[in-house]
Write a structure and sequence with these properties.
7 helices, 4-stranded parallel sheet, Rossmann fold, alpha/beta, single chain
Length: 196
């Protein structure tokens, strides 16, 4: 203490514990300058987790002899998914063949057509089997307007080759209205019966 009763500033002498440990103190300006430089280096990196890879994108399977019967349908589906769910989508779908290594990046792929198509190679059929058994979902959209057409027949052959003994079954229409995973809108019958 000084003569006036005030505390004197502490000075680090050679007998100070900080000096005895061998720690070199940085002046405040150098410390703040280094902190600002570190902040600039960290801020210059891009945030990869918030890019397009974290958004939901629809995939259409491309076959050589199968054109897209409804070019704007998947864009509309992506818009509806974003509007009605918490998904953030990329509106433009991507088209890939079964042989593409990028196939496994997309959880939902769409096979659409209005005519029959040639069967893919054995390697592509095995890749489709792996995609489906690893959790991928295949949405089949027949634009023929009838059951039992050439597209329907080709899809059944493809699925019989890809999933032998495990053919998919159609969802019974009686369970569609009561199943929230299939129908997110209430049926008209249910709404009408509430008004009566």
């Amino acid at each position: 203490m000084s003569a006036r009763g005030l505390l004197e500033p502490r000075s680090f002498s050679k007998s100070s514990p900080v000096a005895e440990c061998g720690i070199k103190l940085l002046p405040r300006r150098q410390f703040l300058g280094g902190l600002a430089l570190a902040g600039l280096l960290c801020a210059s990196r891009t945030a990869r987790a918030l890019g397009d890879l974290s958004k939901f994108r629809l995939l259409r399977l491309r076959f050589p002899d199968l054109p897209d019967p409804r070019p704007s349908a998947l864009r509309r589906l992506a818009w509806e998914l974003e509007r009605r769910t918490s998904l953030v989508t990329i509106p433009d779908p991507i088209e890939l063949p079964l042989s593409s290594p990028e196939l496994f990046r997309y959880p939902l792929c769409v096979l659409s057509g209005e005519r029959g198509f040639a069967m893919p190679s054995e390697a592509d059929t095995i890749r489709l089997r792996r995609y489906l058994t690893f959790g991928g979902c295949l949405l089949v959209d027949s634009a023929e307007g009838r059951t039992g057409g050439s597209f329907d027949e080709s899809v059944r052959k493809l699925l019989a080759r890809a999933l032998p003994g495990d053919m998919p079954r159609p969802v019974p229409p009686t369970t569609c209205c009561g199943n929230p995973s299939i129908s997110c809108m209430p049926s008209l019958d249910a709404c009408w019966s509430r008004l009566r």
